[in-house]
Structure formats: C-alpha cells, structure tokens
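Fold this complex.
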Amino acid sequence: MKRLILLSIFYLSVTISFVFAQKEDSTKHIASEKVDQLNEVVVTAQFGPQSLKNSVYNVRIINAEKIRLRGATNIQQVLNTELGFRFSNDLTLGTNDVELMGMSGRNIKILLDGVPMVDRSDSRESLNQIDINTVERIEIVEGPVSVVYGTDALAGAINIITKNVGKSLVNVSARIQDETAGNEYGLLRGKGNHNKNISANWQNNGWNLLTGFTHNDFGGWNLAPRTATIAEVNSVANRWKPKEQFLVNTKVGYRNDNFNIWYRFDGLNEAIESRGGMNPNNYKRELQTYTTHRYTQQLQSAWQAAERLQFTAIAGYTNLQRSTKSLIHDFTNNSEVLSTEAGKQDVAKFHAAIIRTTAIYSPSKSISIQPGFELNSDVASGARIKGAPIINDYAFFVSSEIKPTEKINIRPGLRFIKNSVYDAPSVIPSLNAKFSLLHALDLRLAYARGFRAPALRELYYDFFDASHSIMGNTNLKAEESNSFNGSLALHVLKLRTTLSGFYNLFKNRIDYGVDASNPSVTTLINIAKYKTTGATLDNSLILNNLQMNVGFAYIGRFNSLGDSEPILELPEFVWSPELTTNLSYTFTKMNGNISLFYKYAGSRPSYQLSTEHNAQNAKLVKVGAFSWADLMLNKNLYQNITVTAGIKNLFDITQLTNSSTASGGAHSIGGATLPYSYGRSYVLGVSFNWNKN
Amino acid sequence: MNKLNSILAVTLLAITFTSCKKDDEPVLVIPPSDGSILTLNAEAAIGTGAANSVFVDLSADEQTKVLRTSWTLGFYSGSDFKVILNNTAGATAKRIEKTDLNAVTAADFVQSEVALDLMNPNVNEFVKIDDPRESSILNKTAIAAVSAIESENKVYLVSPSGGTHTSVITAETVYKVRILRKGDGYALQYAKLNETTFKTIDIRKDVTYNFGFVSLDEGKAVTVEPQKHQWDLVWSWSIYFGGGGAYPYGFSDVVFINSLGGTQAGEVLSSTISYDDFAAANIASVTFSGARNAIGDKWRSTQPATGITARFYVIKDASGNVYKLKFVSMGVGGDGGERGKPVIEYKLIKKG
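Structure:
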C-alpha cells in the first residue's frame, strides 16, 4: 500500500518536473490537439455545452481519439483501465456488470445521448450493448446527478455521446478487426473475437443523416468438447459463452442557427449460446440460447427562442425483450425437444418511455435558471413478474447557476418526484460550487442527494415453489444517498492535475429479508446502509508527441459486518488501491502511434463471518490484485486506411485469486479463483475512411 | 421385460417338473426383477415439489403414487405405540398441557408455535416435527409415544401443513387431537380447534404395514404406504434439514428407504467404481445403512443446480436381494430429464 502511495507521488513529481523543464517546448505545435482536454466540451448534467474547465461538475472525458487508439470493440474495453472502474463477469448468463468508485451497476446511470439505457435487472449489461463504432466520446460524472437524471444516478452517470456528422458532404467508413481469445482463434469466424462495421453519413443545407451497421462475433473461450459430461463442464468455472451481436443505428437531423432537431434509432440483436454438458446416463445435453432484442428510439431538439431563453426536449422509447430458449439434444438419435425444466423457457419484456423538457432562462450574465419536467413510464412482463405492472414517474426539477463574480459559480438544484407505485422521496436537493482560486487552480465542492427507485422487479417479483418463497414488495421506498464530493484541479500549461475526494452514505438499501407478517416468506425490504469513501489523483500531461496520464485511487467500501456484529470490532471500511497509466506517443513523420493502457487494481478485501470452536469470528478474505495492460499500435497506411495492431491483456490475466468461500450473487461460485478474462489476445484491424467535400 | 422372461422361465420350469401331476395347479414363486429403468411418474404441482410421493418396489418393478396431502397422521404397527406426522405435507404439532380435548380452544393457538420457521437454526423448530435428522422417523416424534396411562396422553394442536411455504395457518386450519391406546391399537380423538365436540377413529395395528394412516381432513383411515415388504424406497417432497442439521427445510426430490420394513442402502461414489463395473463381488466393500435417509438428498444438487451427483446406491431389500441403483435424470442442471419425473435405473446383482 505504502509503496503505491510513494509510487504515485513519484509519478506526480516526475510529471511536474517535466512540465517545468519543457516549458519552452510546450508552446510548440502539438501533434494531436484533440487530447487537450481542457478545451474539450462536455454536455452531461450541463445547462448547455460547456468546456471542461468551466463545468461546475468534475467530469471525465474519454474522447474518440482514445477510443480509436485502443481498438476497442465494446465500451468495457475502454473503461476497464479507467480510474475507479471495475467489471465483474456473470459467466453463467454471459453478461457483465460495471462498478464505479466501489458502487455496483445498479447505482450507475447509463445514458445514450442523455436518454437512459434500460436494463432488465440490476446489472448494467446494456453498457456492452451499445455500438462502440457510433461513440464519439464517453463522459463520466462521479457522484449523484439525481436532480437532472433521476433514479439510479447515485454513484454517478456514464453518458455515451454518439457521433455527429463531420464537415464533409459525404463520409463512408468501414472497420474490420479480429482478435484472438487467449490462444484460441479462427480466421474471421468461429473462435476469437470478430468485429465488422460500416458507417456512412451525409449532410447538406443543415440536414444530416448518419447510419451504421456492426457485427460482433465472439466465439467463446475454453468451451468443453461437445460430448463432455455435465460434471466435466461444471468442473471448470472459467468458460466464456459465445456471443453474437448485430447492431444498427440511424440518425437523421436538421439544424440551423437557432434550432436543432434529430431522431435516432438504435437496434440490437444479441444471442448468447450456453451449451451444457451431456448426461452420461441418458446421452442428453441441454443447449440454451439467451436472445436480447433492444430497440431504442429518441427524438431530441434544442431551440434558441430568444437571446436569453432556450428550450430543449428529449423523447425516448426503449423496447427490450430478452428470451431464454432451452433445447434438450438427444445424442442417440440426434433429435431436439424443448426442455420442460422450470424456468427454462421464458420471455421477459420491458418497455420504457421518457420525456424530458428543459428551459434555460438567463435574465442576466450572472444568473441562469433551468426548470425542467420529466416523465418516465415503465412496463414489464415475464415469468417472475406479477401481472403486467406499469410504473409512472413524474418529476419537476429546477436548478440555477449563479455567478456572483467571475470566479465563483454556484449551482443549487431541486427535484420533486411523484411516482404512481412507490413512495418516492419528495425532494432531492443538490448544491454544486466551483471557485477559481487562481487562474490555474479550481476548487469544486458538491453536496447531493441521490436516489434509486425500487426497480420493477423488486416491486413485482413473484417466485413461489416448493423451495422458494420470494415476493416483491410494493411498499418499498427508494434507496437514498447523501454524497459529498470535493476536487481541486490544477492546470498549468499542458498539465492537468485533479485531486478529489468523496464520501457517500447510502440508506434504505433494498435487500432480501424476511417478511415481518409471515416469517416463511422472503421479500425485498429497505434494510441496509452502505458507505463508500476515497480519494483519487489524476494527472494528464502532454509533451510534444507524448501524452501521459497517471492516476491513483484509494477506495474504501463499507464493511457491513462491522455494523451488524459490533462485538467483533471490525474496521468500518475495507480499502483497495488502484493505479492507472496511459501513455501515447505519436510518430508524426511515420503517421503512427503507440499507446499503452495500464491499470493496477489492488487486492479487494472483505470480511466474512466464520464459526470456529463455537465462537463467531470475522475472517479477512481477499480477491487478489491484478495488472491489466493493452499495448496498441496504429499506423496510417495511405490517406484512407489505418492499420491497428496490438496486444490486449498483456499480462495474460485469466482468473483472480479469491480466498472468499462465497462471493455473493446468484451465480457466483466461491472458491480459490474468480474467473476474470480469457487471457492475452492479439489484435489486428483495418479501418477505412473516405470523405467527399 | 426382464421380469416377464424370468416369470416365463420359471413357469416353464415349474410346468416341466409338475407336468406329471396334471391334477395339481403349479405354485409359482415369482422371482425378483432382474432390473429395469423406471420413470417415477409423479403428478405435477406448482413449482418443483411434485404433488405425489412415489413408493418403489425394486423386486416387483412397481411404483405406487400417493397424494402427499392425502394423510395427516401415521400410527405405527410395530410393538411401540408411536404416531408420526406427515412430513411430506409439512405437518406440525404443538403439545398443549391439557387432557380434555374440549377444553382446548383458539386461545391455546399461537401461530408461531405451529408454523415451522424454515431455515431458522433454532433447536425448538425441530420439536414441531418428527425430527428428520434421526435414522428412524420414530426416534424423536413431535407427538410423544402413546402411554398406557390415559392421563399422560396430552392434547396436540396439529397443523396439516405448518411447514410449507405457501400455506396459511390460522386457528381455523388447525386440528386438536388426543391419542389413546385402545387394546392393541389406537383411539384418535380429534376436532377442529373451534369445535366443542370431538369425533373418534379407532386404528388397529396391521403388522403387514408399517403404519395405519388417518386423514384429519377426510376424518377417516386411509391407505398410504404399500405393505411393508412391498416397497424399498420412496421419493417425495418432504420436510428435511439443511445446514448440516442446523435448521429444518422443505426439500423436493428427497429419497427415503423403507428402514422400518428392513431395507438397507449403501452409497458408492462413481470415482471409486463405476455403476457398470459394480458386481456381486463388490458388495462386500459397501457399508450398508439402515438409516431412513441413507439416500436422502445426497443423490442430487439443486443449489447449485447441477442435478444428479456422481454416485450410485446398493440396496438390499428385506428378502436379501441386492440391487445397484443409479439416478439417471431429475430435470435439473440440463440433464435432459423432467422435474417431478426422475428416472432410476437398477439391476439385480445378488438374489436373496
């Protein structure tokens, strides 16, 4: 631990000394201006497009250039070396969940151009159901943004901003990329990871049209032979299910000086194949397919009605359907029938609509007010959902930006909520402030209340059989959080250093518990509290052709055993360190670039109750530390063609050590190791880009 | 099929030897079944627990289905005077310190004393039921052995389904019972809790059965188990235990052997020897157990849902026939079977 702190201090001092040493040079032209983050514009939770420096929120940006250099095929590959991010795999379902600053996915709001992504349960599998090729940049706000974005935005928001048309009349681009999965690979199909994309856009006279099509085909990894027995299949935990995605998107819009309107459609068809083992007693094998259809439509508009008055409106509609189909294959006669096992055939349907309108009125230069209205409507049905419930949520929010002087920006906000089903918190407040201490030094302080509405599944879950008795609870209240964030940002020439700290206190966490009126029924209740705290230090530096980013985080997660078993005198928090380093060097003459993306994720401790010699003890257990690195090379061959090559997961991480006997969650397998990846993979890709002016 | 062939062979043999005496009809001794593959054909119920218990007689290739809720109390036919509750319907009992049935009213009813709190690791929970951790169901019954001294026989509140998840238990659903000896049998006095008079059913001991059964809901004696030498094991949903005996829990697909009827069973791990290779010569290496739960829930795993575990059983019936028996599928973990219709395969390896 101490070593890490020292290491990061060393990095920081090196970066600072570089800055002063390079003072003269830094006035020279920078090869790639796109990475000069201070001038980059952010939109998440802002009144309007805002420069990063002027944003009252501490926003992180991952821009198109970085995504391109990474050769990423999904958003997880972009975020997995970012500070404070961690991903977990559910290999049983073939899905992933994201974690930000010690909080799991259900407390993170995922937005596509400001429209919430819909998930069927509390893990954020939607994040990897967005076409990476349509992403312009990713904006990350840490801490609650519930005043603007409502439910789920407790730990923060990840806003995926899609591409707009460029300056040319017509643009056509195509990309093909192949990756090995560990040491498994088949050319363009079968084993490995195969990605293809074609996009085109056009603009004229304010009208614009974009469209794209992507095919991602992952062949799985470490799959058992076709006639392996059930026991053989189950004996290895780290098996990756084949996954195939077809993604399509279209955007059509019109803009002039005062008005802008666009419609966007995103479609996804995903199939995950789960092949069971053969029963050696009857020579039968189960084959399951999990199919997801996701259709998201959005209509957005902004109108500058007067010099000091602007309106924006968003309408979104998501249709999500996830089905499970299970076949029993009989090897003796090569026939297949539908499985009759409970829960093996299912279709779950979700519909979600959102309308959000906001106005921005600036009566003077020093004050502006943003009132807004949001309506959400969710409908769901499925085998374990009681009936076909509809949840309507109405919210009115208002925030204002007050600048008493040039150097101070204060932004208070309130959100009022009325929900048709659950008892919503009546008011959610937030207060953000930014002070320019010096020209190069900004201080940001924030207090915010966040909330997570009980999910449809938690309200209407209904699962009764001989060995289960779980009931949803329509009397649930929202989970709430009180969050305190502070950050100090220094920007000297081409160095930006941000030191930030956070403390989040969550109450009314929804968890399983026993029904008070009937002890034999398990239901969902507001029970637990949770806390996270920590600090991060993030440094970006540009030196001629070299871009550097070094980050350090120390994140504490609440140890709930300390609370429930006070007699054991356990610490309140368990801590994990993180270190990230991104290096990118551009060879101007060669038109090439080499980039290294590195992250060290420290071991993750937790306490577990154990009984030894009839006495209750708390045992410290750990998920082991690991280092992740991607090394990527990009070279522009001719005017239109770029080649990408590299190695992902350089340290060949496949599983993490784990001393926990059970890691929680329905599909987790306690034991000596935690499956994490399929190992080192080799990447080769070609992209083509053609413009007509 | 095998059995038919055997019957035919023995018949022919019998005819050969007796054909000279045309006056007398031959007496056939039916040989035990050589083995078979049997699908225990339960009837579907809500969820994973089938509506039936299925009794299996290996030597006769026969299965007998009994609705789990068709009975409430079982009266032991052996020398002891003991009464069991229907664990397969989740029945529970609570002793009341009174001997006058009519003096017991709704005031004596406390829901938590009758409702079984599944998964609660409190020793008092097991007192409400016939302790399923015991090797014989008669070891620790919820209802005390029926005494010859009448005044020692207290009233019990009996809930026919106190240990199931979904049942509603109120003063209206609960019975009050008092059981006395009557000659070499039993007299059962019973009434609904709020009734002021009671009825009586006499149960005589029939030694060809393990128990005589009564349904309180129907108010009469009912037939449940086959005769005690005509079954070897029963597959059912039942109140059982989890956490290594820490708490009571409802189990589907649990298997009990007919320990009171003399059946014994031994477990063999497939890693030691395969089912196919196991033969009469290997019987000596098997440790036989007369415990009711010699098979229990060990043959399958539903949490995690990986289905049938890698083991098989060697079963010795009361006549000394030894079978090897394996579970083929149960409809869990993608084993190609159907839940509630487990498939067993067994083979005679030593004739008794």
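Residues 2-18 of chain B form the longest helix (17 residues).
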